[in-house]
Structure formats: structure tokens, C-alpha cells
Amino acid sequence: MRELTNAICARAKELLQSGAAGRVLGWAPGEFFYDPTPGVFSEGRLNELVYDGFTAANLSKYCIAESQKEGKVLVLLKPCDSYSLAQLVKEHRVKRENIYALGIPCEGKLDMRKARAKGVEGALSFREEDGQVVFETLYGEVRLAREELLLERCLCCRGREYAGVDETLEYALPELPKRDRFQKVAALEEQTAQERYAFWRGELSKCIRCNACRNVCPACSCVQCVFDNPQSGVAAKANSTEFEESLFHIIRAWHVAGRCTDCGECSRVCPQSIPLHLLNRKFIKDVNELYGEYQAGADPAARPPLVNYTPEDPEPSAVLERGRA
Amino acid sequence: MPLNTSAPAQTGEYRPLIVAFCCNWCSYAGADLAGSSRLTYPADVKIIRVPCSCRVNPLFVLKAFERGADGVILCGCHPGDCHYTTGNYYTRRRMTLLFSMLDYLGIERERTRVEWVSAAEGAKFSATMNDFARTIRALGENRKLRDLRCGN
Q1: For the segment A107-145, what is each residue's pLDDT rounded down to a tens digit?
Q2: What backbone phi and psi angles, to 5 degrees, belong to A294?
Q3: Regarding the domain delimited by B18-147, which CATH topology (the fold level of the hierarchy) does it fall under?
Q4: Is the pLDDT of residue A94 over 60?
């Protein structure tokens, strides 16, 4: 990983020196080794840039603010992140002329929660050794297979294609496992309504309305959110009713339906580990099945499914008629 | 405050609260025609007139459920006949996805419905509402999406 970080830094330095960009949007060390934070670097500070197994944050959303500033910013994008930026550019949320997008390779990011669940306690640092993650902890070394620690979204990696980047950095990395991303959604669809209700009640009632899912989402970029409106009748913070949890999450997923690139940030940042991506994926799955395959961010010219129609669209009763669960 | 004022406890009979969003140009006129043709539809159906079925924000539907609705039905012009040319095409996609999501969250899928009713279809309006009310009555009270404050 160190080698790759050096390669990224070297290329970033060249680009800064050539005048292609004035600063770099990347990942800076966080409070702990497992929470690198998005940061902006000048040429002199490039040596502080981090790129390792935990640099999962999608930097696309930060481009909204960064592109409004003077000068060009070089942004480092993993393949899946590049779709989010492409989608934001499509929606005119990012001034593309102020961005230089460098696609960087990714071999899947790690989930500290999975490590903790596997008994990693008091971790001080980590390193990667051929397919294994080695945690240095207060109680000695813990070795775990890398594949067991991958973030949910990386388990269903869409591949190494980039959308709308200016340049990609070539670097050979091992392939990621490719699973069907709709597996869990399909499994839920198979259940009875009562089981699904129980599942979602259990998950959504954990919600503390910290709004992290909303704030991190690259598609959720309204200047003022409907939930910030005191007149909306929805409390902006703690839920005043049980129903509000469902309402917030349905509407959150709804507002990004057709624009969500399935980057999985919502689930990653959820402090309560609610599988929020399952709501987004449900919309993606429905759109794919009913209106044809659509990947947000992939095609700058395609109309998003929810601001589009054909006279032959299925009727809403299609939902009713779908295999009785 | 319980909003379901149509649920008189005296008889002990369950009366659902059904919210019907009707577009101004077709379905609302269809309801009018049903009335002037002396066709009946249950008093449990509360009509909310909207300029176009496309005006219905998913939040409206969810809010209706939150405030005690047992069923929500959306009526608009037939696809292709929208007063604003294309409004109901968008409604169709939106409501399909929204209802599918509600179903995914475990809400009975029969509680939501979209019907296209033109201004000339008073009979269809009446028949649709009767049928929908019957379905909701059979399903019983909607407890899954209800605001607990409205309970008692």
C-alpha cells in the first residue's frame, strides 16, 4: 500500500507542478488509524496524504464546496467514487472546470466494525500483508483475512471502471470478489410482509437521527434539506414518533432514487450500523427491473429514471401483482 | 387528536379512513359526476383535490398514513390524457416506486392504489372507491405506519 500511496503522491506532485491543479483533495490521518478524514493538501503537505485500507470516504461531495473556490483542485477518486462525481457534475452541483479528477486504483476498503466483531480490541495500528490484515493491539497481534473485513459495498464491487475522470493511475491490484449486490434485497422480497416489517422495525428503530447518512451522501446535496424545514412537520433531530424513523429513511432514499450511485457511504457512516444501502438498492433494483438498467453517473446524457417516462411504463398495480410474498 | 372522525365507536363497527388524492381535471370531476349521477361511494373516503396527480409528493402519502389513514388512493387522468400533458406519466413512475418501497418495508401492498379515472367515469369512480374501501375494511386498521400520538 505504501508503494501505491507514493505513486499517487508522486503523480499529484507532478500535476501540481505542471499547473494542472493548485491543491489536492485527499485523505488526511484521522484521530485513529481507522478513520482517515478528507483533507486538502498543498504541495508541501503532500507527504501527509494517506491512502490505505481505511480511506473509504467518498471525496465527491467535498468537490461541491471545493470547486466553488479559486483555482483548480485535484481530487483523488476510487472507481466507485468517480460515478458520484459524474452524477454531481451532471446535476450542475460541481463546477467541473475547477476539478482535475485523478482515478486511483482500489482493492476494496476495510470495515473496522467487522474487525471488532472478530475480536480485535484495543487496536493501535494495522498493516497489510499478502491478503491479510494485521492489527497491532494492546493485547498482541491479530491476523485476519482481508476478504472477511471488506466493507459491504466492496463485497459487491462494480469493477474498476471510472466515470468521467481526467486521468487514471495504473497500478496492478488483486481482483475483488464479485457478488450480486441485490442478493439481500431479493431475500427480503421473498419474505412475508410481516417478516419484512419486523426486520425494518428492528433496524430503523435503532436510528438516532444523527443525519450522518444524509450529510455524507454525495447525492443528497440540497442547500436546504426538506427535513431542516421547521414547517415540514418532521423533527430535524430526535424522532418525536416511532413512525418518523421510517418516514425519514423512506424519504431519504426516495430523494436520491435514480441518482444514487450505490456508493454505500450511508451504511458505512451509520453509527448504529443500519443497512441503509438496502433501501437505496431496492429503488435501484426496481428501476432496473421496471424501466431498464440504469447506473447513475455512468452516462452524462441519459435522463434519470424519475424525471423520465415512456407511455408504456407498467402501472403501479404491478407492485400488487408481483409474486405474492 | 384522532383524525379519523368517521370511526364512531358507538356501533362498534370498524370504519376505515381512506384518503383519496384526486386530480382537479379528471378524477375530481369524476367524483362530481358520481355525485350528480346519484352513485354512492363510502363516506370513509376523504377526497383531497390536487391540481394534478403529479402534485402528490411522496411525503403527502406518508403523512396521510402517519395521521391515521388506513389506505391511500391516488386518482388522476388516464395516461396520455393529462391536462398538463405528461404529469401523470411521472406520477406513475413515482408511485410505483414508492408503493414498492412501502411493500418492501412490510406495509400491506393493498393499502395503496393508483387508479386512472376520467371526468366521464363517475361509475368507475364509485366502483373503485367501493372496492378500495372494501379492501381496506378487510385489512383492518393500519397500525404499522401510524403516529402513536394519534392512537388514543
Answers
A1: 899 999 999 999 999 999 999 988 899 999 999 999 999
A2: -145, 130
A3: Rossmann fold (3.40.50)
A4: yes
A171 pLDDT more than 90: no
pTM: 0.90
Query: What residue type is B107 in one-letter code?
Result: I
> Residue A284: closest CA among chain B residues belongs to which residue?
B97
Using the beta-carbon criterion (under 8 Å), do A319 and B94 form an inter-chain contact? no
In the numeric block, which cell numbers belong to residue B73?
A: 388512493
Q: How far apart are CA A243 and CA B142, in angstroms?
A: 12
Give the gap in angstroms from C-alpha B147 to the nearest C-alpha of chain A.
Answer: 6
CA–CA dist A311, B92 (Å, integer): 10
Q: From the CA of B106, how many Å to the nearest CA of chain A? A: 4
Strand partners, A74: A24, A100
Per-residue pLDDT for A167 more than 50?
yes
Please answer whether residues A272 and A206 qualify as being in contact, where contact means their C-beta atoms are separated by less than 8 angstroms. Answer: yes
Nearest to B95 among A188, A305, A316 (CB): A316
From the number of C-beta atoms within 10 Å of its C-beta (0-12, 13-18, 19+), residue A14 rates as exposed
CA B11 remoteness from chain centre: 25
The CB density around residue B141, as the number of other CB atoms within 10 Å, is 14
Measure in Å the smallest separation between the Cα of B91 and chain A Cα atoms.
9
* HEC-encoded secondary structure of B76-125: ECCCCCCCCCCHHHHHHHHHHHHHHHHHHCCCCHHHEEEEECCCCCHHHH
Is B62's CB within 8 Å of A315's CB? no
- Minimum Cα–Cα distance from A200: chain B residue: B105
Q: How far apart are CA B76 and CA B119, in angstroms?
A: 10
The answer, for B97 touching chain A at a CB cutoff of 8 Å, is yes
**If DSSP states are collapsed to H, E and C, what string results for A170-201?**
CCCCCCCCECCCCHHHHHHHHCCHHHHHHHHH
- Tell me how far apart the alpha carbons of residues B28 and B114 are, in angstroms, rounded to a whole number: 14
Closest CA to A217 of A271, A184, A253: A253
Task: Report B:43-72 residues touching A (Cβ under 8 A).
Answer: 58-59, 62-63, 65-66
Query: Residue A253: its chain B contacts at CB < 8 A?
Result: 101
